[in-house]
Amino acid sequence: AALAQRPRTMTQDTTAPSTNMPPPPPAPQTVKAKYEGGVFGYNQKMEGTLSFDDANQRLVFRNKKQKEILFLPYNALTSAYADTHAVQPAAATVASHIPYVGLPASFIKTKVRYLALQYNDPDSKVAGVTSFKLENKDILDSVLYALADKSALTRRGNVYIKKDK
User: Fold this and answer.
1) Mean pLDDT in runs of 10 for the chain (165 residues)?
2) What's the helix, strand, coil split of the chain in %, to 5?
3) Half-sphere exposure of residue 89, counting CA atoms within 13 Å on the CB side?
4) Are 162 and 152 in contact (CB under 8 A)?
5) Per-residue DSSP letters for 72-96?
6) What is the pLDDT of residues 45-62, one digit of tens each?
7) Taking a C-beta distance cutoff of 8 angstroms, is the pair 67, 46 a contact?
8) What was the pLDDT predicted at 16?
9) Distance between the two ends of the chain, CA-based, in angstroms?
């Protein structure tokens, strides 16, 4: 005897992320960030700040000396999302190679949070993906929300995208 499958009935999933979530607190005008790469011509990682330049409609990255290094126009952003990676700190990596101490040290992980941006610049005809390492989840959420709002991106799950008009 064989049992046939029947179609599943759809129910409202209450565990799915809601698109009507309350907005995070307002983002500061400038936040500490570490550029991780992705913009054509800027290969090295560097620390600095990300700033909203609303007068010129762009997101600006400046190095530690506050020299403007690169910028992304708001209208060039096609998607943005928050990314998290669990990494092992350097001290834990070294300790993991020491006999008898190493095993517990190998389980030490920290979360690193990134703002990932996909862009397509109509002026320079350059497209790509870049990321910036930010301090914590609260800063990341508020910067992501503010940037999506300024860039006219629409939320789709955990990602903000630019819809075709």
Assistant:
1) 58 47 81 86 87 93 92 92 70 57 57 88 82 90 92 90 77
2) 15, 40, 45
3) 8
4) yes
5) EEGGGEEEEEEEEEEE--HHHHHHT
6) 899 999 999 999 999 999
7) no
8) 42
9) 54
